[in-house]
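Notes on consecutive records. When two proteins share a document, each keeps its own sequence and its own token line. Never mix them. Below: protein one.
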Amino acid sequence: MRLLYLPTYSPHLNPCEEAFSSMKAWLSANRNFVLGELTGEATCDPYAMLWDGIFTVTTDKAYGWFRHSGYIH
């Protein structure tokens, strides 16, 4: 058995928080598109809008976030 200490917790170093931050930044940058999707009656597709935000999280970004957090050296 080996004792392994995890890095100290900080929301700034949590990879999930950084992914959510990336999605929120995309939503803010595309505010007009988001508001148009949410206020449209017949053509409203909020799921498609959210998927566009989710796809801002790439494997390269995720790898960088895990390295930044100290989980990968």
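Protein two starts on the next line and is unrelated to protein one.
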Amino acid sequence: MTNATARRGIDELRGHRSKMFSRSHKIARKLVMRQLEKLQLGCLRIHEGEHCFEFGENPDFASTVADIHVHDFAAYRDVAFSGSVGSGEAYMSGYWSSPNLTNVVRIFVMNLSTLDSMDQSQSWASKMALRAFSFLNRNSKEGARKNIGAHYDLSNEFFSLFLDERMMYSSAIFPNDGYSLSEAATHKLKTVCDKLRLKESDHLLEIGTGWGGLAIYAASEYGCRVTTTTISKEQYDQAISAVKKLKLDGRVKVLLNDYRELNGSYDKLVSIEMIEAVGHENYADYFRLCGKLLKPDGLMLIQAITIADQRYELAKNSVDFIQRYIFPGGGLPSTHKIMELVARHTPINLVDFEEIGHHYAKTLKMWRESFWSRIDAVRDLGFDERFIRMWDYYLCYCEGGFMERTIGTGQYVFAGPEYRVDSPNE
């Protein structure tokens, strides 16, 4: 065979491949469009160059309108074969964009049957890959450190670009629309401490330090002792530094330990949005330990992001975009599941509950605005455009979920069996 003949053969093969890819994209597009025809609530507009296709309600009357601009037909392939995770991957790759990304998420949440149908149509290979990913990221002690590090150890500098000055990476609480993110984050801390009825003589255990914001606030504002633990080295170093700088060493003890290594007895216990990293398989042990660590007359507050009760089993047995790219090994409990576990594995009882999911939607919106306002600094830290699109998708994905209440955030206050509201200690 001559070189010319070989080159001609290679060119023909490339041309054949190009036609195959083009054909596969067209098939994928047809499959996705067929799914979108099932949308009933909201209006989704798909823009392909000068062409626009509308799905759902009339945009003049729809409560929510969203636009998707397709830049590469590979987007349809990713969605058709990998469902909602594929949609996020296509966004990360720049195959599609939207001027109102949160609304895109909201429309699919409003039409959950369509979203579920798209996920159920995932290819066998895609489903198996996600299941393998989930299995490999189980939250053993070693696995938990790796999973936490994958997110929280991106760098303290990165998180400082969009969080408030206390570095609170959890839902703020806005008493009114005039509150800034910083004011609302501090108000949340006060709310937590007041619900725990913290006082100077208390020893508070915090599971999940973050960057030390709550531990420092509780010790400085309420005078109590605090023991707090994290398994993120970046967070640990930041918290240690902040505690020393404020001369709170005598009241705040920061540990670099897994929650399963804790022991002792505490007047109060708090855990803010840490249970999401525990893993479904470890929930029972987590609550059992909390019940043992809390004194019989103590109070415990857990702030948890939750999935709707009706979708808990489905979510438990699947891997979504957040688990795949943001919080490996993570998972959301439901309120029903929390109450079931507490009743079965602890002596404590619920004494107060507040749903604050609508506050989280606003918190996420502010984080995203701050993120984009500092985007040059994000790039200066070495994060590329794919990471930036991933983070943008993550923030909008969560905001849309909270706005449509498919996920929520609850503050659960539990009391030990000997706790009494009219106790002399209170």
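For the record: The chain has 17 helices and eleven strands.
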